[in-house]
Amino acid sequence: MKYLRLLLMPLLLAATLQPAAAAEKLSLNAISRYLNDLTTAQGRFTQINEDGTIATGNIYINRPGRIRFEYDPPEKTLVMAGGGQVAVFDGKSNLPPEQYPIKRTPLNLILERNVDLNRRNMVVGYDFDGTATSVLAQDPENPEYGNIRLKFTGPPVELRQWIVTSGDGTRTTVTLNDMKTGGGVPARLFAIPQELEARGF
Question: Alpha-carbon distance 69 to 81, whole Å?
């Protein structure tokens, strides 16, 4: 047994020194496929605003075109996108929500029906830091709408974070946590007219 242990020791040592499966830079094709295959998802998010304030809440995604952010108290804010519109409900106000077309937001780039990051002039930054692949994308026809920096890990590909820079330069960072993909996400969560009616607007 002593000699067997001596023979096996170099093999065991070599095994422990083998590097773990290394992350690698993901191709734009792989990321596009991942986003196009992503239909429904839900989980938690942490948001860091331009002024350094932090908010948390629940996020729901139902591609194409639908997303919902339910902010934890004391925020009580609700941001929802559906039917081509984004509505921002301020839980501390009795005023109707602010609304605008989702196409005017960089987030539309990952919510549209067919995501193709190889489109000309859509990706303006693409790098890898040894852990995550970062893609900086904009609407090639309307760069004035701002941009979105997406961070992915993998393989397998998984969206971890995005940083939206609006047309006026305001930056908002959203980190995703405990995301579960697939399964049913009720359509009512993205129905702006239904939310307006429920709130008496």
Answer: 9
